[in-house]
Every structure is written in structure tokens, then in C-alpha cells.
């Protein structure tokens, strides 16, 4: 098993790094060109635009998922009636593929067929919700669709953390007359730090991998208004037969994930080691 992991994961990473430093086009080449592909990559306006979109999307997506997921977890933690059904309803979207989610939201946001058309037919003729065809707002529609899908996962992770909070804390807070919001802010949230860290890592990886929802909803358009790095990579890999440039872009995204995730995993490992000691 260990050899499989080393070969499949580390081997493919090394191979991609090697190809990114070659002049490979349709087929791999051993013609070493150093960092030329990386220079070309960051001189490519389409790549820069895709990175800008990803930053905006990532900030909004992660913040919205964290907030909504936390609020849903707090709601369900109140031992509401039908808790099992509600958990299933909130978590179900995450079981759907991003392609299915994208297609559903594409139909809902279609100005001539979806929400805008339905509300206008109800008599509100001035109502407009054409964000999916607006260059300035199209990324927000992708945020909405993916937040709807991923918030349930955050809810499940944080709910598990909330269920681990000692009941004596709540009893002591009630006796002392401390408001519940203050208990959540001062005690519960710090205790949920490991759960938030896990959710953050999963959401951040999902941001880097964003592809299916964009292709299903907008195909990267209108124009390049919803272009993202994963789509850039796939287009240059298969559409433009530029294996070297696509590999360079892949390595850049890999290093981005490693640079952010590695410190978090290291901090968690240190914290667990301190607790164990």
C-alpha cells in the first residue's frame, strides 16, 4: 500500500514537475527549458484573470460555508424535532455531483426559463435576476450554487464538535446567567477550532479544484468572466495541446495548496502532541 501511494501520488507529482520544465506540447518531451513555461504562464492574461476570480470565489465561498454551516449546526444542536430528517436535508446536496448542481442552478438562474421568468409571469415585470449572464456578477452565482452544496458538510463537521461540548458548561452558564451567544463566542468557538480547521482544509481544496460547477453553469463565460485555474488547465491540456503549460499551472496550484494546508496540519499535529504529553 505504501509503495502504491508513493508511486501514484509522489510519482505523478514528480512527473508533472518534470513536464512543466519541458517544451512538451501534445506529447511529453525531454527538451528541458527550465522555468520558461512558468514565465509564459504568468505572462498569460487568461491565467491571471482566472487566479483573480479564484481569490474572490474562495473568500466568499469559504466564509459563507463557515457561517451558514455553523448556524445550521447550532440550530440542529438545540435537539429540534425531526433532527435526523433535517440533518439529511441539509447534507443531501453534498451527495450530489457538482455537475448536477451546476445544471440545476443554471436552469434556475436562466433569465428566460428560470426564477426571473417565473416571477415576471406572476406580475412583477420589473424583476431582474440575470446575474448568470452578467460579467460583473456571474462569479456570485457560482458562489451561491456551491455554498448551497457544501454548507451541509460544514454543518456535519461542526455539529460533531458541538456534541462534544460538555453539558456542564451549559449548566454553569445558565446558573451564572451568561447569555448563550457569549458562551458560543468565548467558549464554544475556541473549542471548535479543530473542526473549523478540518472544514477549512476541505473547503480550500474544493476551491482549488473548482471546475465542474463552472463548466456546467457558465463554461467559463460570459467571455472569461468565470474562468478558473482548473478550467484553464483542462483547456490547455486537451483543447490547446499544451502539456508543458498545463503542467506548470498544475504545479502552481499544488504548491498553493501545500503552502496553506501544510502549516495547518503541522499546527494540529503539534497541538495533539502537546495534549498527548
UniProtKB/TrEMBL annotation:
Signal peptide: none annotated. PROSITE patterns: ABC_TM1. Residues 51-266 form the ABC transmembrane type-1 domain. SUPFAM superfamilies: MetI-like. Pfam families: BPD_transp_1. It comes from the Bacteria. It is a multi-pass membrane protein. GO terms for cellular component: plasma membrane. It is found in: Cell membrane. Keywords: Cell membrane, Membrane, Transmembrane, Transmembrane helix, Transport. The chain crosses the membrane at residues 54-76, 88-108, 138-162, 183-208, 243-266. One of its GO terms (biological process) is transmembrane transport. Its main location: membrane. The keyword Ligase does not apply. Belongs to the binding-protein-dependent transport system permease family. This is Sugar ABC transporter permease.
Amino acid at each position: 500500500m505504501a509503495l502504491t501511494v508513493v508511486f501514484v501520488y509522489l510519482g505523478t507529482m514528480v512527473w508533472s514537475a518534470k513536464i512543466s520544465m519541458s517544451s512538451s506540447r501534445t506529447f511529453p518531451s525531454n527538451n528541458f527549458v527550465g522555468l520558461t513555461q512558468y514565465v509564459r504562464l504568468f505572462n498569460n492574461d487568461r491565467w491571471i484573470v482566472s487566479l483573480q476570480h479564484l481569490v474572490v470565489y474562495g473568500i466568499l465561498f469559504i466564509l459563507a460555508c463557515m457561517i451558514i454551516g455553523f448556524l445550521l449546526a447550532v440550530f440542529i444542536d438545540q435537539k429540534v424535532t425531526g433532527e435526523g430528517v433535517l440533518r439529511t436535508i441539509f447534507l443531501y446536496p453534498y451527495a450530489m455531483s457538482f455537475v448536477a448542481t451546476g445544471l440545476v442552478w443554471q436552469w434556475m438562474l436562466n433569465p428566460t426559463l428560470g426564477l426571473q421568468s417565473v416571477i415576471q409571469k406572476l406580475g412583477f415585470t420589473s424583476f431582474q435576476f440575470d446575474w448568470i449572464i452578467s460579467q460583473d456578477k456571474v462569479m456570485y452565482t457560482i458562489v451561491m450554487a456551491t455554498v448551497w452544496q457544501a454548507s451541509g458538510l460544514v454543518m456535519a463537521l461542526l455539529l460533531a464538535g458541538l456534541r462534544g461540548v460538555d453539558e456542564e458548561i451549559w449548566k454553569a452558564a445558565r446558573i451564572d446567567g451568561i447569555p448563550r451567544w457569549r458562551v458560543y463566542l468565548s467558549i464554544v468557538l475556541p473549542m471548535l477550532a479543530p473542526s473549523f480547521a478540518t472544514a477549512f482544509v476541505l473547503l480550500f481544496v474544493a476551491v482549488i479544484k473548482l471546475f465542474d460547477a463552472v463548466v456546467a453553469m457558465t463554461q467559463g463565460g460570459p467571455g472569461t468572466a468565470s474562468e478558473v485555474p482548473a478550467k484553464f488547465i483542462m483547456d490547455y491540456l486537451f483543447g490547446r495541446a499544451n502539456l508543458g503549460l498545463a503542467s506548470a499551472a498544475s504545479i502552481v496550484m499544488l504548491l498553493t495548496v501545500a503552502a496553506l494546508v501544510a502549516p495547518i496540519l503541522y499546527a494540529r499535529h503539534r497541538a495533539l502532541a502537546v495534549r498527548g504529553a
